[in-house]
Amino acid sequence: MARVLSGVQPSGDLHLGNYLGAFRNWVADQHEFDAFFCVVDLHALTLDYDPALLAQKTLETAESLLAVGLDPSVCTLFVQSHVPEHPRLTWLLECTATYGELRRMTQFKEKGGEQQETVRAGLLTYPVLMAADILLYVADRVPVGDDQRQHLELTRDVAARFNHRFGDTFVVPQAEVPKVAARVMDLQEPTRKMSKSVSSPLGTVLVLDPPEEIDRKVRKAVTDTETEVRYDPVHKPGVSNLLELLAASTGGDPAELASHYPNYGTLKADVAEALAELLRPARERLVELHAQRDYVESVLAEGAAKARAVAGPTLDRAMRAAGLHAPPGGFSA
Ligand code: AMP
Ligand code: TRP
């Protein structure tokens, strides 16, 4: 069975964009593939973060993934820092990747900005840690959003270079294009992606938002000065985003759905209701999971053990291939 791996940063509250753009696909993938999903807490250290909150956000992110439907009886869910093979393989791969190729990564340039001298070295090498996340699991397919494609290309280059120099060690993975190319836009600024880092929380629907909150955000969503409901992403980005959300929740077609609505008010009422319905099971499950901390911890412990059972032998192979002297019992004992 082909293997899938993906990762998410422990940024706490998941939003509708994460759900429709990524996690809904993960939930479907777990039934089709041997699936590994990882909360990548080590990646969170590359930018400023609050150490008092990191552990809690890591746990909340895992809870949210379970709440939206990841099922630990069919997939492996784990925390990156619980599997020491990740940073160990990263070192081998850092000695395979080049400074030039890392410096050219778009996300490094964006996040590093003008601070070339004071930016953390980890921000530069972060794509190599991501490569290790993937290569350790001999993953064939990696579902990622557009912004991560370049990092996946790097992973492929590094894997191929390692194989070429040291002999066949890694599977060169493929990026997996989401089945529905969902790009959920901000409700207040419909020309930018919904994201947790925007200044206006009104523009972002969280998976955890209760129906009243979803209703309030959708009713305040920015549209335009016309009155006609029409699907036209270029000229009517706000209304089109609402139609896409309705289509993503109910399975219809955005252009066709538009014809049912005489005005923005009726459209907004239906969008709010559809989103509340779409997110309701996850919200209810999350409340239950919050009260079952031991269960969540046991899922993560089991996940880490399953992950290590795959990652350990890969690390061992790679260390030996690179010519290191193996201790008795091998590198992953
Ligand atoms: P992030 O929270 O940006 O790290 O994203 C986690 C996952 O959610 C990635 O796979 C993204 O591609 C996806 N994602 C984030 N925001 C959106 C959005 N507004 N629309 C669609 N997918 C998104
Ligand atoms: N870098 C990814 C992001 O910021 C998260 C990530 C880390 C990841 N390791 C991964 C995604 C491995 C896919 C596979 O969204």
Describe this structure in words.
The protein has 333 residues and is mainly α. The chain has two domains: 3-181 and 292-321, 3-Layer(aba) Sandwich (Rossmann fold), CATH 3.40.50; 201-288, Tyrosyl-Transfer RNA Synthetase (Orthogonal Bundle). Helices cover 52% and strands 7% of the residues. The chain has helices at 16-32, 51-67, 85-94, 99-103, 106-112, 121-135, 149-166, 211-219, 237-250, 254-258, 264-290, 293-321; strands at residues 3-8, 34-39, 75-79, 141-143, 174-176. Strands 1-2-3 form a three-stranded parallel beta sheet. Helix 3 (85-94) runs parallel beside helix 12 (293-321), helix 6 (121-135) packs across helix 7 and helix 8 (211-219) runs antiparallel to helix 11. The mean pLDDT is 94. Tryptophan binds next to strand 1 and helix 6.
- Rg on CA atoms, Å: 21 Å
String of helices and strands: EHEHEHHHHEHEHHHHH
Number of strands: 5
List unreliable stretches of 5+ residues.
Answer: none
Alpha-beta content class: mainly alpha
Keywords:
single chain; 333 residues; mainly alpha; Rossmann fold; 3-stranded parallel sheet; 5 strands; binds adenosine monophosphate
Summarize the entry for a quick read.
The chain is 52% helix and 7% strand. The chain is built from twelve helices and five strands.
